[in-house]
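[recover] target loaded
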């Protein structure tokens, strides 16, 4: 079994309210049971990359020539890619969506601990078979930070899967060297689009209510965004039961000890803010 893990967004940055592209953090895992399906995923990614380069707007993009990125993929290419993935019976995609607006700015320094707990939370939701001889866990190098964190994460993953598999192998790969890691990037980016589109529609409705004089302008933008959301639902139906996404509150990511530490830091930050205001006033 192969488990490819990648994320969309950044848990340590972009927590300010209004940063629409960094509002959520999504951690996804592509679970592949056989080596044959892994090779077929690599073929599907290669074909999607060729179709992407055939379009005039991506022909001169250097990033698109190296790897398939979810931010740059065309909607038609993504639908064809999903159709090829849906033909594979032993491929599943699991993801966790976290609303970062509820985390708070004082928690930015706890990135390493939070990332490890999110990975373990995701692995706990994956239905591993009871009899598994060997499991490969591959994580994108861009999402795991420093080498010390790789070692800690490797230990946590081995402990989490040891009861299912007799042997757990941990690898950190660069995304442009592994086609399956690129496939996870496409899936996680696709999962983030629903949150982004729904948030954009809600924001446009708020502007419409606040500025009724510009109703025609905002209604036009709402209809265009709704069409994109409809296309998203059409693409999601191609995957069917092969993709599962959970939205969980951030509070479940902390144990009791870490939660007390976080509450202490938040209280200290608020106290310092009040003291600075009192000194100015």
């Amino acid at each position: 079994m192969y488990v490819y893990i990648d994320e969309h967004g950044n848990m340590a940055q972009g927590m300010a309210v209004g940063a629409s592209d960094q509002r959520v953090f999504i951690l996804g895992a592509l679970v592949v049971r056989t080596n044959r399906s892994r090779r077929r995923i690599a073929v599907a990614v290669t074909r999607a990359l060729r179709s992407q380069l055939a379009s005039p707007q991506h022909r001169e993009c250097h990033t698109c020539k190296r790897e398939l990125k979810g931010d740059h993929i065309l909607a038609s290419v993504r639908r064809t890619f999903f159709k090829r993935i849906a033909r594979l019976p032993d491929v599943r995609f699991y993801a966790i969506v976290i609303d970062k607006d509820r985390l708070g700015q004082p928690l930015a320094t706890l990135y390493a601990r939070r990332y490890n707990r999110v990975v373990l939370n995701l692995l706990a939701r994956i239905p591993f078979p009871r009899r598994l001889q060997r499991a490969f866990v591959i994580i994108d190098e861009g999402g795991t930070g420093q080498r010390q964190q790789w070692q800690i994460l490797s230990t946590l993953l081995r402990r989490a899967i040891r009861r299912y598999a007799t042997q757990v192998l941990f690898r950190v790969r660069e995304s442009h060297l592994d086609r399956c890691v690129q496939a996870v990037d496409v899936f996680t980016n696709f999962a983030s689009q629903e949150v982004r589109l729904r948030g954009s529609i809600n924001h446009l409705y708020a502007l419409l209510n606040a500025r009724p004089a510009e109703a025609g302008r905002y209604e036009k933008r709402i209809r265009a965004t709704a069409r994109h959301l409809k296309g998203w639902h059409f693409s999601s139906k191609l995957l069917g039961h092969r993709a599962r996404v959970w939205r969980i509150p951030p509070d479940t990511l902390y144990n009791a000890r870490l939660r007390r530490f976080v509450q202490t830091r938040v209280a200290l930050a608020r106290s310092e803010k009040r003291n600075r205001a009192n000194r100015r006033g």
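[recover] notes: The chain has one domain: 2-192+240-251.
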